Amino acid sequence: MNPILWGFLHRSAVLKLPDRKRAIYQFIESKENQLEEIAINEEQFIQLLCEKSPFKEAADHFSLHISYIKGLMDEAQAEIDQVIEERCNRMKWIDCTEMMRYAKGRKDNQWAFIFVS
User: Fold this and answer.
1) In degrees, to the nearest 5, what angle opens at C-alpha 29 toward C-alphas 79 and 32?
2) Which of 23, 17, 103, 9 is CA-nearest to residue 61?
3) Which of 19, 25, 39, 64 is least surrounded by Cβ atoms within 10 Å, i.e. has the fewest?
4) Cα gap 43→85, rounded to integer Å
5) Torsion angle, alpha carbons of 82, 83, 86, 89, to 10
6) Is 84 exposed, middle or buried (0-12, 13-18, 19+ CB in 10 A)?
7) How far, CA to CA in Å, does 11 sit from each of 17, 51, 80, 99?
């Protein structure tokens, strides 16, 4: 899937989460992104995840047990995956290259549109 489209679908699905679940999910995602930015390679990223666990930080920040945070994140990810899958199943790519080339009089571009029902 196109990474830009996937990012849009992911952000949209996250916004559909219940408020508390969304806040915790976004908190952890933000912490993971911060660690990713400072890591110079995959091994260091994994090491940073262990040393500065976003799950532990979320548990401390929201005054919840880390096992609750883990379960909530699993639920949130399952909900996000389901929303994305449902939306992808409703998508249809429409190749409009020939129509647009004819209308625009240009032969160098390809045109595709997404139809979501």
Assistant:
1) 140
2) 23
3) 19
4) 31
5) -110
6) middle
7) 10, 27, 9, 32
Looking at residue 52, its amino acid is: K
As a whole number of Å, the CA-based R_g of the chain is 20
Statement: the pTM of the whole predicted model exceeds 0.90:
no
**Cβ atoms 87, 9 nearer than 8 A:** yes
Average pLDDT, the chain: 88
Closest Cα partner for 31 from 59, 10, 68?
Answer: 59
pLDDT digits (tens, 9 = 90+) for 16-39: 999 999 999 999 999 999 999 999
Lowest mean pLDDT among 32-36, 48-52, 91-95, 107-111: 107-111
